[in-house]
Amino acid sequence: MACKPVTQAPIERWQQSVEGAYAGSLSNDAKFSVISSIHHGLSVWDLTKNQRIYNWAQEQNTSDNLVLTIDISEDSGHVLTANRKNFALWNLTTGKSEGYWQVRESNIRDIAISNGGDYLLIGKSNGTVVHVSVDTGRRLEFLGHKEKVNTVDMLPNGRVALSGGNDFIAYVWDTQSGQVIYQFNHSSRVSKVALDAKARYAFTADSMKAAYIWDLKTGKRISTLQGTKRHEVFSTVRFSPDGKTMITGAASRKVSVWDIATGKRRAHWFVTPKEAKRPTGAVVYSVAFGDNNDLLTISSSGYVESWPMPKSP
Description:
The protein is mostly beta strands.
């Protein structure tokens, strides 16, 4: 049975940025979105009411509000945002800032946040990953990577991190000691990593087309994604609560539903591109499971869209 697109059109669509977006994230409970755009800087939306509830500025007295990465904590309580040179912590309940930090050397490549906003993870272009304990100010630098770090993730409790870089390696490591737990080798630069929030799985993908799901308890490979193409650059990953499926978004507008045990693609579809005179693409920034057996996406076109989840085979 060929994997045909399950749907051509979303169930619903909400425009949150007219000229497109530089970054976007959906909360795990699918109730909030945070989007970075040219006109509004950072906007926070209540998706249950389709209302903008906060506007945030990454930096005061400067035009450089260009936030390129956003992560919302698993408990939907805090948000971490970053441009190339600094990162900011926000309280999603109050809308207030809870911290602002600058990076002295090298650029920020990717970020992750724990529940409670207690721990922050910053992957940098000089190959280091910094784990920050917000309350104590303690910083642990993970120095395992030999080249630029491209992608990071962290468990909701902040104790285990996953990072991937241009050295063809993804590391799972302990954020208290900096010790490597597992090393996952690839044949080209690691472009995307993700951890299952329930600490069951890890995902790693490289720039050629290899993508793997690993058992986080044993470090053994569970499956290899089948039918991936070289241009399928994964931009977001979310594991289902029941642990059977994984959703990916790509830089090619493509959203895919995968069977974790076999690595087979069960379904796919394409998010709406930015409205323009000529066809344009869209990067899928984030996906989340909704209440009504639907799936939400947010993309660089500035749209949040709702899609029907395909039924299990």
